[in-house]
Amino acid sequence: MIQSIERAMLVINILAKHPKRFFTVQEIFNETDLPTSTIYRLLYTLESFDLVERNENKKEFRLGYTWLQLGMKMYHETDIREKAHPLLENLAYNVRETIYLSIAKQFASIIIDRIDSPKNVRIIDMIGEKIPYPIGAPNKVLLAFSKSDVQQQFFQQLEEPEKEKLIESLNDVREKGIAISVGEKTKGTVSIAAPIFDSNKQIIAAISAECFEYDTDAEKLENITQEVIKTAQQLSYELGYIYKLFPSIKNHLVSKNSGH
After folding, report:
1. What is the pLDDT of residues 57-97, one digit of tens each?
2. What is the per-residue burial (b if ≥16 Cβ within 10 Å, else e) of 55-81?
3. What is the DSSP string of 149-208?
4. pTM score, two decimals?
């Protein structure tokens, strides 16, 4: 990696921890150990592209609004988000819970869209939030259906007992085609997620619904699960994939429709 770019990213990552706050050069130095002259040079260069904003009075710096413009451009031009958004809105209306669309990024998921629950009390995770593997149902879905080399790279980071437990959990997710987590990211919540596949039969995203544990009984959980599955099937189909009905889901649907 080019050294100047690497150093610039170190500075940007510090500022990104609190995007609205101004940082002094000393604070940046404390976290990066870069020479102050280098920090100043990088900051002034970034400022020339509006990637950094300067407080003239105190010689402090924070992220510039160019990042917002770039992020919003990507946000609005993401093809999967455009196709998914109306389906997510319909899902949120049907289950009356907050709905998320997440994609994988370097052993983590990033929320790229959210439809808020119509309820007055709701669970809100921010668009753009990065959630590390394997926390939460969306991450388990993304990891379970990812390529084997990606899984092996991630497993190398884990100790043996934790690794064995996770592998067993992911096998269950692959068999059922759905993941359910309780209180993994946010205490007192339940998350239900299903995979989204493209025309190349590759997982590209996860749809999830998040609800409060105290307000979710078995019947409600089953209803939300089926709605999430149905939405995932529809979006995958629109992306060119004939969504596979996993055996356990298919049997469950047949049983449910026959009245047993």
Report:
1. 778 889 887 776 676 555 544 578 888 999 999 999 999 99
2. eeeeebbbbbeebeeeeeeeeeebebb
3. HHHHHHHTTS-HHHHHHHHHHHHHHHHHT-EEEESSSSTTEEEEEEEEE-TTS-EEEEEE
4. 0.65
Is residue 163 exposed (0-12), middle (13-18) or buried (19+ Cβ within 10 Å)?
A: middle
On whether the CB atoms of residues 102 and 206 are closer than 8 A, the answer is: yes
> Can you give the length of the chain in residues?
260
The per-residue pLDDT for range 176-205, each reduced to its tens digit, is 999 999 988 889 999 999 999 987 788 999
**Could you read off the pLDDT of 97-117 as tens digits, one per residue?**
999 999 998 889 999 999 998
What are the residues whose beta carbons fall under 8 Å from the beta carbon of 182, sequence distance 6 or more? 189, 190, 191, 213
User: Is 70 exceeded by the pLDDT of residue 243?
Assistant: no
Rounded to 10 deg, the angle between the 25-32 and 3-16 helix axes is: 110
**253 confidence band (pLDDT: 50, 70, 90):** very low
Whole-angstrom distance, CA of residue 123 vs CA of residue 187: 11
Return the sign of the alpha-carbon dihedral for residues 125, 126, 132, 138. positive
Of 111, 118, 114, 113, the C-alpha closest to 94 is 118
Main-chain phi, psi angles of 27, to 5 degrees: -65, -40
Q: How many CA atoms lie within 13 A of 177 on its CB side?
A: 20
